[in-house]
Amino acid sequence: MSTTQQHWLTHSDGLFLVYTRKDETNVNVMRWRAPLWVAQVDVKTLRLTRATERVVLPLIGDGVNKADLVPMMGNFGVANVSPTESWVTDGSWCPKAGNKGELQLARVTWGRANALMT
């Protein structure tokens, strides 16, 4: 995997990784800093399970033709806030658009309570 940023998201039912990576929508975004992805980790092989991969915070804009105007992510954090919810927060910025920055929040709601939080 080509990635510049990654953080663990823990749950009693599994281990997850939140990360950036290159794909067809962000080929011209510096270091592929958007979107943020999440996937479950196979703890036996220590590899991501591709079938579980989801975008947790989407790319905003055109990462192919107008990548300079795509807010870059990667300065993000992960927190378990309750047994049924975790957060991914990101401070994105876009230097070519006057350094405009935003705080983004993705709420991950779990189908089963996270026993690590009890």
Overview of the molecule:
By secondary structure, this protein is mostly beta strands. The chain has one domain. Helices cover 0% and strands 44% of the residues. It has no helices and eight strands. The strands form two sheets. Strands 1, 2, 3, 4 and 5 form a five-stranded antiparallel beta sheet that branches. A three-stranded antiparallel beta sheet has the order 6-7-8, with no helix packed on it. The relative contact order is 0.21. The mean pLDDT is 92.
Number of strands: 8
Along the chain, the helix and strand elements come as EEEEEEEE
User: What is the residue-mean pLDDT, rounded to a whole number?
Assistant: 92
Query: First CA to last CA: what distance?
Result: 34 Å
Number of domains: 1
**Count of alpha and pi helical runs:** 0
How would you concisely characterize the structure shown here?
This protein has 118 residues and is mainly beta. The chain contains no helices and 8 strands.
What's the layout of helices and strands?
Elements: E1 6-11, E2 14-19, E3 36-42, E4 47-48, E5 54-57, E6 76-82, E7 85-94, E8 100-109
What labels describe this entry?
118 residues, mainly beta, five-stranded antiparallel sheet
